[in-house]
Amino acid sequence: MQKRFVRPGRPAGATTFDAELAQAFGAAVRAVRSEQGMAQESLAHRAGIERSHMGKIERGEHMPTLAIIFKIAGALECSTAVLMSETEKRLAEAKS
Question: What domains are defined for the chain?
């Protein structure tokens, strides 16, 4: 019997990226940031992430991890629930 090796990571072809969700979350972050009159670069600095990564998140090109969502919420001085409810609102608008 041959020994099977377990490889770390996702199986080949698996994806967790959902473009519609990523765009809705990015739009929610941008809306909250704009309401506060904060520049994207300032938000990225406060959250401790690269400015280019923040831009990709806001454009919906990157799906942020849970840790980054918490960092963004902390930098915006709001709860993650605010960001999620904004995201849900935008998803509902897109479907209607």
Answer: 19-95 (1.10.260.40)
